[in-house]
Amino acid sequence: MHPKVTKRSSASRRRERGVREADRLSTLPDALLHHIMLFLKAWEVVRTCVLARRWRHLWTSVPCLDLRVREDDHTNTPEDFPEFVSLLFLHREASARLDTLRLQSSNVDGAHDEEDARLWIRTAIKLGARVIHLVGHRRDWFRGSRLAQLEHVSLVSSHLKILKLSYALLRGNILEQLSSYLPSLEELELKDCFISACEISSASLKILVMFKCDIFVNLSVAAPNLVLLRCISPIAHAPSFQNMRSLVTGTIILYDYAFTDSFYKDFSKDELCETTDEDDDNQRYKTRHGFGVPPEGYGLGYNDDYNYGSDIDSDDDNKIEGGRNILQSLSNATSLELLADAGEVILNRELKSCPSFSNLKMLSLGEWCMDAEFNALIFFLQHSPNLEKLFLELKLNFNTRKPLDSGVKPKGRSFACKHLWMVNIKCSEDDARVHKLAHLFRANGIPDEKIFVSYLRDKKITEFWWED
């Protein structure tokens, strides 16, 4: 062999070896590479086949398919998207199980339609999908033209454990027959959905999240094995609850103005739909923890000069429907967060038949418990004998006029929380109620060193121990 050829071949081999050594990513196991692909859209996953020989067939067994297309994605997506998805399913490795499908309704004419979406969901279920996340669009949401509609989707699976629906229209028996359709379902997340079903019933459900859902009927939730509940800012109706004996953690955030007839008149669709289409599995719901007030931009149609809620003794108590047994259903929980404005109707109404919270260790209460004499707060503490941590979230820029009466009367002013080792009060810097609260706790055996105050000063929290 010619010497120059031999030398060139040796150099070529060295270059190839150098490339292999530099490509350390390809040396990772399939499971880890598939995890990296979780952060890519489906079309981006397919394009990894050109990276190296090692990646050539990895996409055919990826456990997660993210088919969500945003407006700014269209320059990168395949030209014939339905055909691309059909080929994607056709060429998947036969033995590869699909774990997760993320799908978004199209907001571009001709991209894909509801029939395509239903077909892909059925295919994912046949492949044993454990997680399905379906996202509609908030655009034109008043007309429902961009909402994901599920009444014609065959959601029947013994494998599905997690179902996340955003901007979806839910009617008929989709939610009412979860136990029979999805017997293994453990987590249900409903975000900005429109619900006209009368019941959510599931014996397997462990986690239920309802975030800013429009509820058009008296919705009842029956989930005896539910462990975690988050009901945040329901609209039109508050759900009622029954048979939740296994609950450990509960978050309830209510605003009375969302249950009034004038709500839709006073809010533009952009203000009402302020969440994004894009899912973020690691994002916690932003409830402005520590302030007990509606999110910024809300309240524009609420005509109360002093920003108090409805009078519990007024006729509004009869106008606001739903929310039955909210506190009773939470009675076995160890951690509760109950946030609302002053005079809020539903929580105050249910407080009148307040059960004992014998398991409760951590409690967060909002402005609704801060009536003039703190009667609602005392009443709650009298029913929580094993409480260890208490968070009080007072409304910022509180008006010094006398708040409305809560409608409940405690048995005296004393309470016995022998295990309470921390009281954290968050409020405006000039809120004089802090001193009254400190006196109340001190009178019931809670020393000053267990009372912490967090003042909001120039949009920054300043924390310190209470010292009189």
UniProtKB/TrEMBL annotation:
It comes from the Eukaryota. Residues 25-64 form the F-box domain. InterPro entries: F-box-like_dom_sf, F-box_AtFBL13-like, F-box_dom, F-box_SCFL_complex_component, LRR_dom_sf. Residues 1-20 are annotated as: Disordered. Residues 1-17 have a biased composition (Basic residues). CDD domains: F-box_AtFBL13-like. Transmembrane segments: none annotated. Pfam families: F-box (PF00646). This is F-box domain-containing protein. It comes from Urochloa decumbens.
